[in-house]
Amino acid sequence: MYFIANWKMYGDLKSLNSLNKVIKFTNTNKRKKIKLIYCPPYTLLQAFYKKIKKTRIFLGAQNCHYEISSGPFTGSISPQMLKRIGSSYVIIGHSENRSEGETDSQINKKIKSCIESGLKVIFCIGESSLQRGKKLTQKVLKKQILKGLLKVRFSNNILLAYEPIWSIGTGNVPKNYELNKNINFIKQILKNKHKMKNPKVLYGGSVNPKNVKNLASIEGIDGFLVGGASQNAKNFIDIVKKTII
Ligand code: PGA
C-alpha cells in the first residue's frame, strides 16, 4: 500500500520535526508492506531529504516544468533538478493545477520528462461534481488517461491517483460501489491501452483516520493520496495503521 502525503502550500522548517514520529513508526513496522512518500513544498525538499535519506520514507515534489533539465522559465523547477536533490516521485496533473490552466498536453509532456529523468510519477485524474452529475465520470477519466499517457513509455513508473474534484478538501468521499467501479474502470484502461500488467491506483480526497478503514476495504485500491490529514503526523500514522492492521 502507498501512502502519499501532499502538503500542498503548507509547512516551514519547523514542520519537519513532526517527521520524527513518522520515522520512528516506519522503523518499528519494517516488515509491513507499506510505502510512505512525502511531497512537501519545493522550499522544504532539500531539508526533507536530509532528514529522510537514511529512512524508509521517500521524497516527492508536487509539480514540475515539462522542460527536462533547464531553460528560461522563470519560477519553474525541472525534473532533473528535483531528481538531483533527492526526489524519487512527482505529483503531476493535480486538479488544483489543472484548474489554474494546466492542460492535458502539458501534463503529457511533464510525465514524459519526469520518466526520462528517472522520477516516478503520481498522475492525478478526477471528475468535477458537474461532470459526475451528468454521468460523464468514466468519459472524463478515460480522456484524462489517454491524453496524459499518450506515447508514454515505461508506464510501470506511474501510479495513478483517482481524486474526484468534489471530494478534495470537502469531507465528502464516494460511496464504496462507485469508487470500486471507477478504480476498476481505470485499471482496465491501463491494462488494455497501456499494457500495464499490474497497474497501481490510489484514491485521494478527504481521506482521514475516521474513513480510511472503510476506504481500504474497497477492492482494487492500492493506497491513498492524503492532503489535509497528512500535515499532522499523528493523523497520517493513524491512516497507515488503520489501513494495515
Ligand atoms: P485532501 O486533499 O485530502 O485535503 O482532500 C487531497 C489532495 O488534494 O491530494
Output the CATH homologous superfamily. Answer: Aldolase class I
- Count of individual beta strands: 8
Low-confidence stretches: none
For the record, give the distance between the C-alpha atoms at the N and C termini, rounded to a whole number.
12 Å
Q: What is the CATH C-level name?
A: Alpha Beta
Q: Helix- and strand-based class?
A: alpha/beta
Shape: globular
| Biggest sheet layout | 8 strands, parallel, barrel
Strand content: 15-25%
The helix/strand series, from N terminus to C terminus, equals EHEHEHEHHEHHEHEHEH
- Gyration radius (Cα, Å) is 17 Å
CATH architectural type: Alpha-Beta Barrel
Protein topology:
Blueprint: E1 2-6, H1 19-28, E2 35-39, H2 45-52, E3 57-61, H3 79-84, E4 89-92, H4 95-98, H5 104-116, E5 120-125, H6 129-133, H7 137-148, E6 158-162, H8 176-194, E7 201-204, H9 212-216, E8 223-226, H10 233-244
Parallel strand pairs: 1-2, 1-8, 2-3, 3-4, 4-5, 5-6, 6-7, 7-8
Helix pairs in contact: 1-10, 7-8
The structure holds 2-phosphoglycolic acid.
2-phosphoglycolic acid binds next to β8.
Summarize the structure.
By secondary structure, the chain is α/β, with parallel strands linked by helices.
Can you give a write-up of this model?
The chain has helices at 19-28, 45-52, 79-84, 95-98, 104-116, 129-133, 137-148, 176-194, 212-216, 233-244; strands at 2-6, 35-39, 57-61, 89-92, 120-125, 158-162, 201-204, 223-226. By secondary structure, the chain is α/β, with parallel strands linked by helices. The protein has one domain: TIM Barrel, CATH 3.20.20. It has an eight-stranded parallel barrel with strand order 1-2-3-4-5-6-7-8, surrounded by four helices. Strand 1 (2-6), helix 1 (19-28) and strand 2 form a beta-alpha-beta unit. It starts with a strand and ends with a helix. Residues 6, 163, 168-169, 204-207, 225-229 line the site of 2-phosphoglycolic acid.
